[in-house]
Design a protein that fits this description.
With about 260 residues, the chain is mostly helical. It is built from ten helices and seven strands. The radius of gyration is 20 Å and the shape is globular.
């Protein structure tokens, strides 16, 4: 009887493992099917049009915007951001750099854009622009620069923020993304402290969220992480979110950019 009971328990355990594996595989199949008609394509097309369109108080396009590879060069820029920019004397990620270009070239109010809620007004346009810029580097390897002192400082600050536990639930970014083999519900949680998790996780945004029908850039993705940790929202383009981006991007060096992707 004892042998039969042990065999039954073993079968139950094996069945549970198979069921769990099947659930993960089903999610991947679901994503693959959706990817054929990823709505991010629409945002990508909008972003390209916005880049070339003369807009704003100065009636200018963004074709002279320097994303780190020289004025107007888009291909390869995404996989080297965030990085230090001499004209702003700041380390900037893609979205904050786009806002700087919108202000300097087109005459938009950068502070006003930063205060605008995600998905509205010029914030929506920033997301579309980021989607197109990211798509232009799809398949390229991440290689964030770390030669400038401020880039090195940003990495160390981002690392400290990543592991800092606080809030009502005593969470940190590392609570979910600091070890291999973690999951929430049926969702695998990449380990963002090293590759392949860092490259796969950081390199997937901007992404289209099927669950709410929205296009999310990295700034919104990080804001939502803060929400889930029960932290106050950081400001758009804040030093904290950019430092986190540096930490994740440097950890993902050599990983392949897949953005814009599609998420649950």
């Amino acid at each position: 009887m004892k042998t039969i009971a042990l065999m039954a328990l073993g079968c139950l355990a094996a069945g549970a493992a198979l069921a769990q594996k099947s659930a993960v595989e089903s999610i991947e199949e679901y994503r693959a099917m959706l990817a054929d008609g990823n709505p991010a394509d629409l945002f990508e097309a909008k972003g390209e049009a916005l880049w070339k369109q003369k807009r704003g108080p100065r009636n200018a396009s963004l074709e002279a915007c320097d994303l780190g590879k020289g004025a107007g060069v888009v291909k390869g820029a995404f996989v080297e951001l965030p990085r230090y920019f001499a004209d702003t004397q700041r380390v900037q990620d893609l979205e904050s750099r786009l806002v700087s270009c919108m202000a300097n070239l087109q005459g938009f109010n950068a502070d006003e854009i930063a205060r605008t809620p995600f998905g509205r007004g010029e914030q929506s346009n920033v997301t579309a622009l980021a989607t197109w810029v990211a798509a232009e580097s799809k398949g390229l390897k991440f290689n964030l620069p770390q030669s400038h002192q401020k880039e090195q400082v940003a990495y160390e600050v981002g690392k400290r923020i990543f592991f800092m536990r606080a809030g009502s639930h005593d969470f940190s970014c590392a609570s979910c993304h600091g070890e291999d083999g973690k999951r929430i519900r049926l969702q695998d949680l990449p380990n963002l402290t090293k590759n392949p998790g860092a490259g796969n996780g950081f390199g997937a945004w901007p992404a289209y969220r099927v669950s709410n029908g929205q296009m999310w850039g990295m700034q919104l993705r990080l804001n939502d992480c803060y929400r889930q940790q029960r932290f106050p929202y950081p400001g758009f383009g804040s030093d904290a979110t950019i430092a986190l981006g540096v930490y994740l991007g440097v950890n993902g060096k050599g990983g392949t950019s897949t953005a814009p992707t599609i998420k649950r």
